[in-house]
């Protein structure tokens, strides 16, 4: 599984790269802040919402600490998606939030 640190992802965002970020945390967690431009699909909803994801795109998966996003990555990889896990999750995120 491909991995990226929170700092590396923040640098890509700051550089203006077009990123597809999926936050798999629960609603109550996302209410405390989300990476600007990230799409919220809680982990349990991913199997039902695969149609929203394009297999030709690359996705960065985010959760609180990197565990659930790692599980999401494994599921998506098995289904033919190109994904990278943000290790350390939002606990390591120091960038802007909305």
TrEMBL record:
<feature type="domain" description="Rhodanese">
    <location>
        <begin position="15"/>
        <end position="98"/>
    </location>
</feature>
<protein>
    <submittedName>
        <fullName>Rhodanese-like domain-containing protein</fullName>
    </submittedName>
</protein>
<dbReference type="InterPro" id="IPR001763">
    <property type="entry name" value="Rhodanese-like_dom"/>
</dbReference>
<dbReference type="InterPro" id="IPR036873">
    <property type="entry name" value="Rhodanese-like_dom_sf"/>
</dbReference>
<dbReference type="Pfam" id="PF00581">
    <property type="entry name" value="Rhodanese"/>
</dbReference>
<dbReference type="InterPro" id="IPR050229">
    <property type="entry name" value="GlpE_sulfurtransferase"/>
</dbReference>
């Amino acid at each position: 599984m491909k991995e990226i640190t929170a700092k590396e992802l923040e640098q890509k965002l700051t550089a203006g790269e077009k990123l597809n970020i999926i936050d798999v945390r629960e609603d109550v967690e996302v209410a405390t802040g989300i990476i600007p431009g990230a799409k919220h699909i809680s982990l349990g909803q991913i199997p039902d919402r695969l149609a929203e994801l394009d297999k030709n795109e690359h996705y960065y998966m985010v959760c609180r600490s990197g565990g659930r996003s790692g599980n999401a990555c494994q599921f998506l990889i098995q289904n033919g998606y190109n994904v990278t896990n943000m290790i350390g999750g939002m606990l390591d995120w120091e960038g802007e939030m909305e």
